[in-house]
Write a structure and sequence with these properties.
The protein has ten helices and 19 strands. By secondary structure, it is of the alpha+beta class. The strands form six sheets. The protein has a six-stranded mixed beta sheet with strand order 4-3-2-1-5-6, sandwiched between helices. A three-stranded antiparallel beta sheet has the order 7-10-11. It binds manganese (II) ion.
């Protein structure tokens, strides 16, 4: 992304801040990266009506100056954070600064309040929600990263399918996914891959272990990659060898539930609760309601789970949001099925960002 895109984001945040505040102090790594383009675990980005300053330590100064050339970068010396913080806050006009209340502990809040005094910090200004409202709209460059991440995940999962055979373990398959995805250019995995086979499939977030694949198993792969800081998220459930009629039936129900929710979005539907219900009602009608215990999806972007949740709580789906649609049915002690795609909400419709087939695949 071009550097001035970050400058525009910062200006957009400033424009959203209520008039009674002088500005915001961004301390989380993720939001610091969103507004500056610089990924740093010790950066303090002051955004005020009187200008912005990025404070960091000597490990990061040179890289920060290169990355954020549109804003002053100030280094604090060993033992000098409080003095530098106070000086910068004063120079930028002091006043009250909003902080991200959902991203810090009470102890961190107390420490930062001391460091940036005489400015007064407050977590009560709704800064997290304002930032969410900006981050939810993905631009072309962000979508390109997510598509690239998804493309690697799909190529990698196809490769992993070729490794499925009697006796291979879930952990073997999870490791192969990571190795191959990294070789194809993933910066890292979007999260620890889920590979859940047979009866382990009934645990939606099972950890891949030493269970060996055998004939008649369903295997659920929930996998994602990161490119340019942006995450992808996809789930596929495949069969190894012949499966029974109940497994086929459950697969069909989950696929229909997912398709119904995707159709809702494609037709222009823009309510989170309605989208959740579109999938859930199909599963309920088939008699499996009690076996679908999680929400239908979530936002994806710089984080694997971000605003908005596709759940009964509802709310409008913002144009530009990327959300997952991932219903599942989990039968304890037996097996589970989940199928997940990513959808990009447009003005009048939604675009499916996941190309991989969802037809029942028997390996
Ligand atoms: Mn997901």
């Amino acid at each position: 992304m071009e550097k001035n895109a970050f400058q525009h984001r910062t200006a957009a945040l400033l424009a959203l801040l209520p008039a009674e505040y002088n500005g915001a102090l961004i301390t989380s790594q993720i939001n610091g990266r969103y507004f500056t383009g610089f990924n740093c675990d010790n950066g303090y980005f002051l955004v005020t009506k009187n200008g912005c300053v990025y404070i960091t330590d000597s490990r990061y100064t040179e890289a920060a100056q290169n990355a954020i050339d549109w804003c002053e970068v100030t280094e604090y010396p060993i033992g000098g954070f409080k003095q530098t913080g106070g000086e910068v806050a004063t120079r930028l006009g002091g006043g009250t600064l909003l902080v991200e209340s959902s991203r810090m502990t009470l102890q961190q809040f107390a420490e930062l309040s001391d460091i940036f005094s005489p400015a007064v910090l407050t977590g009560d200004g709704g800064l997290d929600g304002l930032i969410e409202s900006l981050r939810v709209h993905k631009n072309e460059a962000e979508i390109a990263c997510m598509k690239a991440a998804q493309d690697i995940a799909e190529k990698t999962l196809r490769h992993v399918y070729t490794m499925v055979r009697e006796g291979v373990t879930e952990a073997d398959l999870a490791f192969e996914f990571e190795f191959y995805a990294r070789r194809l250019g993933a910066e890292k995995l979007a999260f620890d891959s889920i590979v859940a086979s047979g009866e382990n499939g009934s645990m939606p977030h099972a950890v891949p272990g030493q269970r060996r694949i055998r004939k008649g198993d369903f295997i659920t792969f929930d996998v994602g990659c990161v490119v340019g800081g942006y995450h992808s998220d996809m789930t596929r459930t495949v069969a190894y060898g012949d499966i029974g009629t109940e497994q086929r039936r459950v697969y069909e129900v989950v696929l229909k539930a997912q398709q119904t929710a995707m159709d809702y979005l494609t037709a222009g539907g823009d309510d989170l609760a309605e989208c959740d219900a579109a999938a859930r009602d199909v599963i309920k009608a088939a008699g499996y309601g009690p076996y679908f215990g999680h929400s239908t999806g979530h936002g994806v972007g710089l984080e694997i789970h971000e605003f908005p949740a596709v759940s009964y709580k509802g709310g409008k789906i913002p144009v530009g949001a990327v959300i997952t649609v991932e219903p599942g049915i989990y039968l304890p002690g037996k097996f589970g099925v989940r199928i997940e795609n990513m959808m990009f909400k447009t003005e009048t419709s939604a675009v499916n960002l996941t190309q991989m087939s969802r037809d029942l695949l028997i390996l």
